[in-house]
């Protein structure tokens, strides 16, 4: 959906006169990974409120830190979109939250305030896609439906 605001932001970005967007690389040292919580997609300023990266592949036992790079976001696991036996989580707004992933499978996660605007992401642990079918059955409000569908489709590619 191209709102007027997004349209103006896109034009500004094209003209190269928009505000400089910080585009820091999430840290990854092999077993520790980072997912940034951002007010706007670094590569696409017209796409507000994102997790960066939207899809993260890690090994079993690795940890992921949700980094509150911009204010006003949180990270919570999405019910029905984590493997059996995995612990759900629900971070506070602006919390720098580190989770260790010891159960292989797909984990869907959301930012609670921006869930229906499509601020969602996937973590795949141990290259295990065995709960893909279950994850696809979960229903979502607003833009989350479209974004989750497209991210899950990427996993199948
Ligand atoms: Cu958010």
UniProtKB/TrEMBL annotation:
<dbReference type="InterPro" id="IPR006311">
    <property type="entry name" value="TAT_signal"/>
</dbReference>
<dbReference type="InterPro" id="IPR012745">
    <property type="entry name" value="Pseudoazurin"/>
</dbReference>
<dbReference type="InterPro" id="IPR001235">
    <property type="entry name" value="Copper_blue_Plastocyanin"/>
</dbReference>
<keyword id="KW-0732">Signal</keyword>
<keyword id="KW-0249">Electron transport</keyword>
<keyword id="KW-0186">Copper</keyword>
<dbReference type="InterPro" id="IPR002386">
    <property type="entry name" value="Amicyanin/Pseudoazurin"/>
</dbReference>
<keyword id="KW-0574">Periplasm</keyword>
<dbReference type="Pfam" id="PF00127">
    <property type="entry name" value="Copper-bind"/>
</dbReference>
<dbReference type="InterPro" id="IPR008972">
    <property type="entry name" value="Cupredoxin"/>
</dbReference>
<keyword id="KW-0813">Transport</keyword>
<feature type="domain" description="Blue (type 1) copper">
    <location>
        <begin position="50"/>
        <end position="125"/>
    </location>
</feature>
<keyword id="KW-0479">Metal-binding</keyword>
<protein>
    <recommendedName>
        <fullName>Pseudoazurin</fullName>
    </recommendedName>
</protein>
<dbReference type="InterPro" id="IPR000923">
    <property type="entry name" value="BlueCu_1"/>
</dbReference>
<feature type="signal peptide">
    <location>
        <begin position="1"/>
        <end position="22"/>
    </location>
</feature>
